[in-house]
Specification:
Layout (H helix, E strand, L loop, with lengths): L2 H13 L3 H9 L4 H12 L1 H16 L3 H6 L7 H6 L9 H21 L1 H8 L7 H31 L9 E4 L5 H12 L3 E6 L2 H13 L4 E5 L5 H14 L5 E3 L15 H25 L5 E3 L1
Parallel strand pairs: 1-2, 1-4, 2-3, 4-5
Helix pairs in contact: 1-4, 2-3, 2-9, 3-9, 4-8, 9-10, 12-13
Length: about 300
């Protein structure tokens, strides 16, 4: 009886999942099923909890269906409470006690998972900073999920002995975490040496150390790709450390999770400089110094 309700409610939750996250997961090596399990399902978890509660309450309180279809030995609790009513009298004491007992399981369950219920019922609504934080969390979850897909693909190549980039090197901007980290590790697992520039030197060094542990050469460096001086230094480091570089991945980027009227001029300039200007000037500077055969991915 609750199946139509579940389908009707859950369709809305899944439609709110950004299609870009699913597409990114597919590009990064996930199958349709893996993208559903690793990306879509975690994002709609609050909706699943809210739907489960609504379905449980709908089934728990069902009266008409049970009254007509159920037999004497398969009565639901609402039908049992109905037995306290008769033509001669109404047993108010027993009726009240039974109604209280029936209500308690739902109340207790709701108290334990009320946070998920509220998040599920408000999923997709924008009401303030908390909702914007939730969106940011969803995006982070999606990025982590797609990074996991990269890891799975790299593991598969490693098990099959596929080393396609032996003797080559790569530069992956913003490689300190998330998709950038997974990309750098995948290059290393396929045999490439990797330059690991990131705004956070600590995370860059951690990734570089992980690559060195796998037997490949890695160089960590603190880099702001919006600054021309840092771009020059990054390219010169690659020229000095690596005999040949064939790949450049423009991974560094940011998203301002705010309402448009709350964006400052500095926020807008920072977003354009990192997401647009750096994507143009980084590979241009690099391509001017390297010989033919280079590849750029943005």
């Amino acid at each position: 009886m609750a199946l139509p309700l579940v389908l009707w409610v859950m369709i809305g939750f899944f439609e709110d999942v950004p299609s870009e996250l699913i597409e990114a997961a597919r590009i990064d090596g996930c199958s349709n099923f893996s993208a559903f399990i690793r990306v879509a399902l975690p994002l709609v978890k609050p909706g699943i909890v809210a739907t489960a509660i609504l379905s449980f309450i709908f089934s728990w309180n069902n009266f008409l269906f049970s009254l007509i279809i159920a037999g004497f030995k398969t009565r639901t609790l609402p039908i049992a409470v109905y037995n306290f009513l008769s033509y001669e009298e109404i047993n108010w004491g027993g009726l009240t006690a039974a109604a209280t007992i029936i209500t308690l399981p739902v109340l207790i369950l709701s108290l334990f998972i009320q946070k998920h219920i509220v998040r599920g019922l408000t999923l997709g609504a924008l009401k303030g900073e908390e909702d914007l934080s939730a969106i940011s969390g969803q995006r982070s979850a999606g990025e982590n999920a797609t990074a996991n897909c990269w890891e799975l693909t790299a593991d598969r190549f490693a098990k099959e002995g596929i080393v396609r980039l032996e003797g080559k090197s790569a530069i992956v901007t913003g490689a300190g975490r998330g998709i950038g980290k997974a990309t750098a590790l995948m290059f290393a697992r396929e045999g490439a040496d990797v330059l690991v520039p990131d705004l956070d030197l600590a995370t860059s060094e951690q990734v570089a150390q992980e690559i060195r542990t796998s037997g490949r050469k890695a160089v960590a460096m603190q880099t702001d790709v919006t600054q021309a001086a840092d771009i020059r230094r990054m390219v010169e480091t690659a020229l000095r450390e690596f005999a040949r570089s064939t790949s450049w991945v423009n991974n560094a980027g940011i998203t301002q999770v705010r309402f448009p009227l709350e964006l400052t001029e500095a926020d807008w300039d920072r977003t354009l400089n990192l997401n647009l200007k750096a994507v143009f000037f980084c590979p241009r500077r690099w391509r001017a110094r390297w010989s033919s055969g280079a590849r750029v991915s943005s």
